[in-house]
Amino acid sequence: MTRKFLDKVYDYIGKGVAEFYDDWATSYEEEVTENGYVTPGRCASALARFLKDKDAPILDFGCGTGLSGLALHAEGFTNMHGFDLSSEMLTQAEEKNLYRTLTKVELDAPLPVAKGDYTAIAAIGVIGPGAAPLDTFDKLVGLLNQGGLMTFSYNDHALKDRAYEARLNEYVDTATVRLLFRERGPHLPARNIHSTVYVIEKL
């Protein structure tokens, strides 16, 4: 592979990120797979521990090419809806025939979803440098009704900034969410990058 997007991805956040992922779409899966990308499977497995209804509607936010959808499907989930900033990534996801709906969203625009539309939200490898900003966490938690679940991950690049876990701890300390699961493990093993996987419940 002549162009290594992983060498540049963590320099992007906010403006320009959608275009970056559009450019990466056709080679994304090859590059992350050759680096051993395992966070989608870890998040899907963690969510399955707490969400027993396999037909429950799940918002796969930042679904990309659908690797997270494949991981959720492997755990038996059947009712997935994907949102992403990149139209080219969504084209790749559509080819997998995993999602009930796929929707392109804008970084700063309101999300086309009402509170409680989804029983669970997956934001796998989404929040952090090279992807969505931290306030995305607030937006997604705000979409959950009481009892709703969210699985998400922070990789090593995000966790270098203490604001990421501090925001989660703030929600836990104010009894807005309950932390059900937290586990550090591999993210991109070939690059020795780890991630922490979480599952929270809205209170």
TrEMBL record:
Name of the protein this chain belongs to: Methyltransferase domain-containing protein
Record keywords: Methyltransferase, Transferase
Top-rank taxon, per record: Bacteria
An example Gene Ontology biological process: methylation
Pfam family, one: Methyltransf_23
Taxonomic path: Bacteria, Pseudomonadati, Pseudomonadota, Alphaproteobacteria, Rhodobacterales
TM stretches of this protein: none
Presence of keyword tRNA processing: no
InterPro entries (UniProt xref): SAM-dependent_MTases_sf
GO terms assigned for molecular function: methyltransferase activity
